[in-house]
Amino acid sequence: MQKVNGDSVYPILNMLNAKYFIMPLQGGATTPVMNPHAMGAAWMVSEVKYVDNANEEIDAIGGVNLHNVAVADKQFESVLGKSVAQDSTSTVKITSYAPNELRYDVNSKNGGVVVFSEVYYPGWTATVDGQPVEVGRVNYVLRAINIKGGSHKVVLEFRPKTIDTTEAIAYGSLVALVIAIAVSLFISYRKKK
Fold first, then answer.
1. N or C: which end of the chain has fewer CB within 10 A?
2. Residues 116-160: pLDDT tens digits?
């Protein structure tokens, strides 16, 4: 895997942080091989290239170095703004991972656009140091936010209102069921006396 130019052969898998590939061996056996080109949980980019639509976005990601450039639909330009040139001191470290909550420490003297190796889906929210920021989409499928320079705590959460509504209906139905069972038992008990 180290003899292959992974950035040009499978850049999409790298941006999705595919850490291992299952390689076939003789006799039908397989072995996991570590991908040294995986880009990690998140990274900062020096440039955001805006295109007119999603089709152009997916076409453009094959022609850029995804370590340094993110491609975004113009509809996210107001969310992501312009990125700033990054240097080797810019870091993004994941500190906590749960299915509906991710936490990161971000350090960048210049600020700019942070790309997360997580699939973009409406309903995800982001905060930077406790303050809400909008989440944009880059590279056709990934989440991204714009941050100011300095050290920041970033939290991505998925808490859609539909889940709250569903839980309220479920708990309300459970209470109604318990009450119905209690009333039924009370009536049965009264009939036996």
1. C
2. 999 999 889 999 999 999 999 999 999 999 999 999 999 999 987
